[in-house]
Design brief:
- With 104 residues, the protein is mainly alpha-helical.
- The chain has a domain of 55 residues.
- Helix content is 58%, strand content 0%.
- It contains 6 helices and no strands.
- The radius of gyration is 28 Å and the shape is elongated.
């Protein structure tokens, strides 16, 4: 009986030590994110506002379509996230205060 008990305890300790060593590296995503050169990742390059030759050269139907779509939002109250909501998220990971602004 004593041998069985010692064998059981040894097996439990062995399994536990394996589980602890396997899951000690909890910041895998953080390390991966630090390796990414975020400044080199860019979206599409658009001509600047001052490049009137480009913007005036767009087809008239495109300009009318996008101006009309944009005019719908002239009086829209764009929600903003408060700095305190960002701070809370950084401290405890709670995104509720930021998501509730957008109705999510």
């Amino acid at each position: 009986m004593r041998k069985v008990l010692l064998s059981l305890i040894s097996a439990c300790l062995l399994v536990n030590s394996y589980a602890v060593t396997k899951h000690t590296d909890k910041d895998i995503l953080q390390k991966t994110a630090e390796k990414v050169d975020w400044l080199s990742i860019r979206g599409p390059e658009y001509p600047s506002y001052s490049d009137r030759t480009f913007w005036n050269g767009l087809p008239e139907n495109w300009k009318e379509k996008y101006i009309k779509a944009g005019e719908k939002y002239l009086d829209y109250n764009w929600p903003s996230v408060k700095a305190t909501s960002y701070l809370r998220f950084m401290q405890d990971g709670d995104r509720n205060s930021m998501q509730s602004i957008n109705g999510q």
